[in-house]
Amino acid sequence: MRRGLICILFLFLLAIVVPSLTPAIPGMGTTSWADEKDDQLKKKLKDHRDRLLGSLKDVPGGQWYGKASACEVWKAMDKSQRYVFLTHTDLLGQRSLLYNYPYYFYPYQSCDDGECTESSCAWVDDMGYCRYSSGWDCYYANRCGIDRGAPTDYTMAIEHVNRMLWVAGSCPWPTTWQDGGNCVNDSGGYTGRQNCGGEDNNRIYYEADDSLMGMFRNRDYGLPMWDKSQDLAGPHKGFTNTSETLHGRRSNFMATGQTHFFAWDSDPNKWVEGRTLWSRFCNERSVGAACNGSAYAPSWAARMIEQDLDYTSPWRESSPVCHYSMGQGFQQYNTVWTNQVTGNDAAYDYDPCAGPQPQIGAVVDGVTYSSTIYPTTTITIFGSGFSAGGNMIHLQRSGYADVWLFNGDGHYFWDYNGTQINASLDGRAAAGTWTLTVRNASGAVSGPYTLTIQDNAAASNNAYYCYSSTYSYYGFQNWLCNAAYNPTYCYTQTWQWTPCPSANTVSQAVCGNGICEAGESGSTCGQDCCDQYTNCWTTKQNQGVYYCRNMYYYDTQTGYASWHGWQWVTQNETTQMCNDWWEAWEGSYYQTQYQCGGSTGKCHSITGGYY
Q: What is 355-455's CATH number, 3.30.300.90, 2.60.40.10, 3.30.360.10, 3.40.30.120?
């Protein structure tokens, strides 16, 4: 039995209980089957399918690199690739629970009326004597049986997949599979027949997080549907370990899942016969998107997993579109796996292009929460139907070039809770009336929202980089070129000195109106101003909702950890910055931290919660 760490993040100097994604005691996990119906599990599977499908657009050298959304990736996939993606994500989702089920021991012949448990059991040995030991000793003596109880934690393996790297169909890229089994090129010319088997077809490659990787390497500690592989061929080229699904074996190998991975973190750079295992993988396998052109592997390669499904034995063909004893492979998979672990089918009705349409409720200044927006403002969009990552903001105006705001555009952008998006304009949209829309990760676009951007002194005097002693922690920033922040030193975009916006351009400061006006700061009006002087207990306009924090956390989309600046945040928002083990990794680059009112703190792991 393994005992994981459940944690509490005390970002508000308050106890906020957060569910842990680290290994947990069976029966004490974060998801209760009694509380989560089949349709809710399907919804969670869809969310992670959207996330992983969208991650393919960010894999350099990949077939879908540069696509705008998960929807666009889906449109560019052929039918065989789509069914590879659907069957394997269902296997990682509804069929592969992360945590072990509870065990129940029963002696074949008991000598005590007490309960036989994992730690204590009374049983009769071969000589007829009464023995007292653990349930496991009784089991290994072949005098006890084991029943596996119903799942008590429905955390799925797919929740611990960081990103998808490659989805290989039944035709080699860049050819496309067509109904009837032909492979064609971009011009529609025939290039050959489909591949029902082969080492590089009909499989996925993905990067697991440390929790999932640890489960595959130490199968006794989790992943109860997976066990040691019985494939005599062993791990596939380049890898050093392999695993196989138990249910696939019991079903005469008609839909057996297999994974291939590195047994140790050091294995990718292990030298074998004059080259590293990573070099062998990159030179003998057709997964160019995963390779970096070096004999040495990138750090994430140790967590790379190859996964395929075998529909026949002993030939182990793996195509979801080839025909087998129970129909095409995807049909055979659904027949074999439906009602395993959950009562759901494989959800082949998945459509990432049919997601809910985003709805924009309001657009305000992200610092002051005022409806007055300037070209240098960091805006906050409130609404619904946003994705938890992967949204894009589109600004359009007649006579002006379109402006796109998104994570990775080189400017501040945050969009992780599905109902709020923060983005810095940084002078990219001139004063005037714009039409704003939001496109979520599924490609669904909101209705138009009319956004009026006001002119200010910063625009008229060309101030682009500004420093304010009130907000000295930020140094020179574009958004500080606003008279409301009382800038003291200003430069143009080419770093030529220029006068700063005058405080006379704004009305006299009124503490309590929710706007941090000139002359105000966190020390003089903490309910309006969020900066290093704002008291930890003070909330915006004293409403008890928004707290002033400077958060340090790892951004999974950019791949960097950094301080994100002083801003008003809710307890729920900071909770999302500390709900995985690596965010509580003491002393690491990834550990979540916070600052407020002269105090600092970190996300720590203890038995029982975060603090």
A: 2.60.40.10
Four-residue CA torsion sign, 210, 202, 96, 93: positive
Q: 173: which DSSP letter?
A: T
According to DSSP H, which parts of 296-433 are helical?
Answer: 329-337
Distance CA 464, CA 402 (A): 21
Using one digit for the tens of pLDDT, what is the confidence trace for 38-87?
Answer: 677 788 899 899 999 999 998 888 889 889 888 899 999 999 999 999 99
CA distance 155 to 30: 7
CA 319 to chain centre: 28
Backbone angles phi, psi at 74, to 5 degrees: -60, -45
Contacts of 322 (CB under 8 A, 6+ apart): 170, 181, 194, 196, 311, 328, 329
Residue ranges covered by each domain of the chain: 1-30+549-611, 32-97+155-337, 103-148, 355-455
pTM confidence score? 0.55
Strand order, beta sheet including 241-245: 161-168, 203-208, 304-310, 256-261, 241-245, 226-228
Q: Where are the alpha helices (DSSP H) in 305-354?
A: 329-337
